[in-house]
Amino acid sequence: MAVSVIIADDQEMVRTGFRMILESQPDIDVVADVVDGEEALEAVERHRPDVLLLDIRMPKLDGLEVTRRLSALATAHPERGERPRIVIVTTFDLDEYVHTALRNGASGFLLKDASPAMLVEAVHAAAVGDSLISPAITVRLLRDMAHTGSGPPEPVKQPAEPLTDREADVVRCAARGATNAEIAAELYVSLSTVKTHLANVQLKLAARNRVEIAAWAWESGLATGGP
User: Fold this and answer.
1) Could you give the domains of the chain?
2) Sheet holding 51-55, edge to edge
3) Could you tell me the pTM of the whole model?
C-alpha cells in the first residue's frame, strides 16, 4: 500500500517541487498540499495521511503549533488512531523552534535543499516509525537541544533499566548522526541487531522515536563518551 503524504508549506514552488519528487515514487501518494497551519490540520483530519511534511514558518499556525496540537490530540484521543508522522522541512539549519517540534514527536528534520533521494528516504523512514535528520546538522541540532535554552536545565530522564554496553554504543553512534547501516558497519554487527538495540532503548527510555533517543544521549552526556 502506498504511503499517503500531505505537504504543508506557504511557498508554491516548494510544494510543487516536493510533489513532483514524491509522486515520482510508485509507493508514495501525495493526497494534498496546503499553504498554512490551519489548512494542514484540516487536511490531516480529512485525509488521515501516513506522513505530514511540515514547514516551520507558515501563516495562521506555524509548524511548531501544528505539531503540538497533533501530539496533544493523539494523547487525549488515542481511540482516533495514530496521528501522522511529521517530518519538519525548513530553510534554516538550526531553527530556534525545531528542537521543540522534535520533542513534540516529529519524526525527522530536513533542510529544503536536501537531495530528492533524502526527501524520499525521510518519508519512507517516517512511515515505518523511524527518523531521519539531515546528517549535516544532526550533531549541531542535538547538541543545542541539550546545551542551550533559558533557565536552569531540566533533569535528565533516567531509563527504566540501565542500557547494556552494546546499547550504549549504538545510541552514541545514532546521536552522532550515523544511519543504521553505518552503525552496523562501525560496530561489526548486523543491521537487524542495530534495529533491535534501538527498539530496546526506545522502550527503556519511553521515547517516541529515534530523535528522542539521540536527544537523550546528548542531554545525558552519553553522546560525548567513547567508543
Assistant:
1) 3-133 (3.40.50.2300), 165-224 (1.10.10.10)
2) 28-34, 3-8, 51-55, 85-90, 108-111, 132-133
3) 0.69
